[in-house]
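Q: Could you write out the predicted structure for this multi-component system? I'm mainly interested in how the pieces pack against one another.
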Amino acid sequence: MEAVLEVRQVQVTFKTEKGEIAPVENVDFQLGKGETIAIVGESGSGKSVTTLSIMGLLGKAGRVSRGYISLHGRELTGLSAKELNRIRGNDISMIFQEPMSALNPVLTIGHQLSEQIRKHRGLGRKEARAEGEAMLRRVGIARAESIMREYPFALSGGMLQRVMIAMAMSCNPKVLIADEPTTALDVTIQAQILRLMKELKKEFGTSILLITHDMNVVAEMADRVIVMYGGEVVEEADVFQLFDHHRHPYTKGLLECIPQIGSGKGERLAAIPGSVPLPQHMPRGCRFQDRCAHVMDKCREQHPPLKDAGKGHKVRCWLTCEGKEGEENGGTP
Amino acid sequence: MGGHHDSERNGGPLLKVDGLKKHYPVRSGLFGRNTGQVKAVDGVSFRLEQGRTLGIIGESGSGKSTMGRLILQLEKPTEGGVTFQGRELTGMTERQLRPMRTDMQIVFQDPYSSLNPRKRVGDQLGEPIRVHRLLEGAAVEKRVQELLEIVGLSGHYRNRFPHEFSGGQRQRIGIARALALNPKLIVCDEPVSALDVSIQAQILNLLKDLQGELGLTYLFIAHGLGAVDYISDEIGVMYLGKLVEIGDSARLFGSPRHPYTAALLASNPPGSPHDRRREESVLQGDIPSPLHPPAGCRFHTRCPYAQKRCGTEEPVLTGEGSHKVACHYPLH
């Protein structure tokens, strides 16, 4: 598959009062054309920092301190703010969990939508407005004309997320980054938004990077899944492979801790004990060791590398993956 | 202490809700005239037995949180009654309610905003015990330590401030505070929605353990269907201020009778990529404004099975046994 976005051996560091911390290390993947990759993990796993580094939105204190990120072979790390501005919106767009906080509360939807289209596509005022209205219709907003005149506060959460998607898609981006796009929504509205994202992906051939902590959303949307823990990738696989034959104990934990309708009512949920360690308190060896039921001596001493278990299934675990680093290995452990 | 061991009621449900309504006036214009009503809760009735859990689901705007606050008498209902341990709460004065309040507590969605950031956790847990004069002096300290341990935290944490805890730990503190007065009923209003999935499971396990140990009764309000199914004995489905279906949780989710319940279940994303939605059974549109709820059945504007009658005649909640549905044309 043609790689649209490449993230290679990326480490992100932030300056803090107590020295530098690295909330993201060893993140490595590529996103193909028209592909949906889901990045899953708990708060503190580094998934949002990874997307911000792709967007060049790390702020003054943060930087990509190792590795590189490239879009269609063009390196993004190190571009000037002006060059990045052209790429953001045109080539890569992003939608967030809270559409309300991403929109300007004192400007109408129409104003914000057409301004973006004018800026990025160089259209005139009238054409941009017509284009914006068409885009609202495309994302399933029937009263597009009157919604253009509304302010953000007047719209429901689901409607605002549709507006955000219309904005993000209005410049026909190659990559759409969706950071927990449905976490704040009701299940019915979540289903509508997920379906809309699937339709747009098919229609425009957009590649999607979906950030979520919800394995059910992953099951519905993803082609491939990247599981992050403590700032690094711990497992990567095709979505069917991941659900059927996952190997990392953390992935297993994430899958089993979700109560599914109609299953095992009397039983206790398989909660993962404890919580993600802070970047400044990352243990030596495997980062998941303190929460892992299968921890061995080796896990406490040596940091496991990401190994290829065959067919693009990669795992970072001493117990379950004996494959060689970076090499194909079809054998089962 | 030992509030959950007494037996002042013989038989009868712990909580009885009858025709509960809350209508908020809407004022607009220069002189703030009454121009309408939001019927946030509009005639809800159910019973909840001691030691059981009733889950309440429904979209935002369905009135489920308002109903929780009405039951706890944090807001005065417009109409209808709430009977708790055989005593009618509506109409009681604040003074009369006070001793009742120790038996009914609430756990909120956001433990960040429901704890005082300037007070040590131990003081916040001890305060209700002192105010209600359950214990005095050193016994309070001992109880605080015990409460922290009950919810799986170290007793040493009593000297810390809320910001020193993670989201999951803070929710444990929220639960400890609800337990401080040995309540019988706890209203859990979206207690896990703001937490990571792995932490959600920890809190759900904790709530279930506590129920077993202390004989607690829960009203569990949430929009995560899996969590509600896991913790509830019975489930009630609310839509625009009305209870549209209620029944045993396995039966209700296994074979829903109301098209809205079925639509909610169909919207829930699958547990495995093998079960992806094939036919597009997604419910269309947003929940209508409670300011202008549709006539007849309130769900008829979004219902795939709506008939003419549904637009004019309001269905009532009926059914044999404990499974009840408010629909002219139930699914089976």
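A: Regarding packing and overall arrangement: The first strand of chain A starts at residue 3 and ends at 16.
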